[in-house]
Write a structure and sequence with these properties.
single chain; about 170 residues; mainly alpha; about 70% helix; elongated; disordered N terminus
Amino acid sequence: MADDETPEGILLSGEENAAVRIKLERDKRGWSTTTLSERLNEAGYDMNPSAVWRIENRKRRINLDEAIGFADVFGVDLQNFAGPPRLAAKGRAMELIGKVVAAQQATMRAQHAFAQARDGFDAYIAEHPDIREDAEVMVSNAIAESVMQMNTEIFGPPPGPPAEAEHPDTTSDE
């Protein structure tokens, strides 16, 4: 496979992705390297047509300011611009990928915080075995209540009659 035949869906480095993306975006718009160069210059990013061609063909590296300029002219955010070309062309895919990665990072941070809290709790309980049973029951109950609240927030109340209906008032006015 020749250098200029890189499949557009493979994961490359950010700089390689940007080079492929520039050509894809330029071709999609029907722009020549001269037209793209003119648009970059109008937007305040100094670039000649030869530099555009050299970047697209990986004969010249792209610097951060230039990458910002290309992203600006193409109307895409920089992360999307430097992402894998086939995915990056689908802006929603990149947005969702970002959300998945952010959620995974938040999960890892939460798991780490939980492990630290549990280790601290376990160490304390090891020093105070007389309260182990009560403390463990309290932790279990608090976690169960928290899970129930979170499930209600996420999924709504459980099916069935409301809690009050389970214990009807047995007094009567008759």
